[in-house]
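assembly run, all chains below
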Amino acid sequence: MIPENIKDLIAKLKEKTKNNNAKWQTSSGENEFQIKLDAGKIVIDSFHNEYDNEWYVSFGIYNKEGNEVIRNTVEQSDISGDYELLLDFHETVQNSYLKTDETINKMIFEINGKDEVGEIDSPLPF
Amino acid sequence: MSREQRITVYIFLGLSVLSVIIFTLFKNEKSTYLDFISVWGSFASLSAFVFLFFQIKSQKSINEESNRAIKETKNLLIKLFSISDISKGTKIVEQAQTFLRLNKFESALLRLKDLKEILIYIKHYNTKKNLINLNEYADHVSNISIDLLNINDKIIGKKSTINVSKVISNLEEISTFISDFELKIKDNDS
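ok done. output:
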């Protein structure tokens, strides 16, 4: 079970991320993101384990000396609600990093504002 | 004979003379040599206390000197060991990057562990010198810890893929950090 203070930390950081006030970076996990704070570093990752065919979400905290102080890895079959909480947080972070909503909104604006969208293929050289 | 021992002998002789003077001045018909021995004995005890005081002080000083010498030797050994290991850091980075490009994750994991130890040496070496930016140092240590975890997960099959190019990029930054630190050590020692 994820402790209450971590849930609180996640909720506050999620809010900051949604408002585009949190600068996330990629990390060495395939879907992993990290954010540097003055007090340390927070890491969130989502991955699939081929052996047990489970999806996992992993949340870690590193202190200001760079040492790992907390690591919570929760599998999809977990029924405590922790998996949904961390997955939702991961999606928020991923969307923020990739600017998903911003891109979609700009596309909608472009489609609505132009009679014609897209570009023709470059002419063939022969 | 040490300075303290000489002082003690002088005090003892002075107090012996003083005991003779006191005995001579205050003796009467009933006074015996036993009374003189009693007076002299009291002053002798006082001298013994002074001697004991100097002995304890001297012993404490010897202990402090020994501890200081041990500490200096230990620091020198750590320094020599650390510098020789730190200078291997950039080579270890190159090896780790090559292993990662060849998907030899077990070998890369070992090299990254060596590299993490070197980062720890750097912190110990830096304790009194402030040659590194501690925030940058913490960033590298946490990144290498994350990378180690991901590579380990990849080896045991917990993760099917990891971002190898990110690990290589993190290693490059660590290599720059170590080279920079080496230059600062040379500048500092010259």
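Chain B has a mean pLDDT of 86.

The interface with chain A takes residues 134-135, 137-143, 145-147, 149-151, 153, 157-164, 166-167, 170 of chain B (CB under 8 Å).

not gonna interpret more than that til we talk
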